[in-house]
Amino acid sequence: MLLASAYHARLDIPEQIARAGAQGIRQADVLGEDDRLVTVLRERLTEIGVSPLDEDLGVLVVAIGSSNLAANARTAKVASRLAAGTRWAGAATAFATRPEASVARAADQLRRRGARRLVIAPWFLAPGFITDGVSTFARDNGIRMASPLGAHPLVAETVLDRYDEALAANAAA
């Protein structure tokens, strides 16, 4: 399960499948910026008390980031989709592994746009090493952080859809 069509999805996993010499294995597509996952991210924010009516709030959507600029551009769309229909001061995407789009830079950008308070919405499937670093940044800067997407029926539904799509493509081949 991957969110972005970047290194692991485009190179690493296909190479592993080829190296294994396995026949009939088809890689499912990434989960991507599926609307259901954006809904889960909204729910994670609600769980920590975020209101869509909070005009003083800036939301940092933090993802892992990639050297693949197209993957980053697709991920960057999550922030505007998440903010749609809210009164937030703004939402911005930051990449935990990309210094040119760091969490600190995105936080500064939102503050310049009028955000008095910030919250982090992690665009990650599960906690781990990188989210630990984001959590440390949040704690050190007095920023609340929601949970990753995690175990949620809409995440499972999205995974099953990708599985079904891969099965259908395999049957058609």
From TrEMBL:
Key words of the record: Lyase, Metal-binding
- Using the record for this protein, list the coiled-coil segments as residue ranges, or answer none: none
Q: Does the keyword Lyase apply?
A: yes
Which terms in the Gene Ontology molecular function aspect does this entry carry?
lyase activity; metal ion binding
Source taxon at top rank: Bacteria
Query: Does the record carry Lyase as a key word?
Result: yes
What SUPFAM superfamilies has UniProt attached to this entry? Chelatase
**Pfam families from the xrefs?**
CbiX
The name on file for this protein is: CbiX family protein
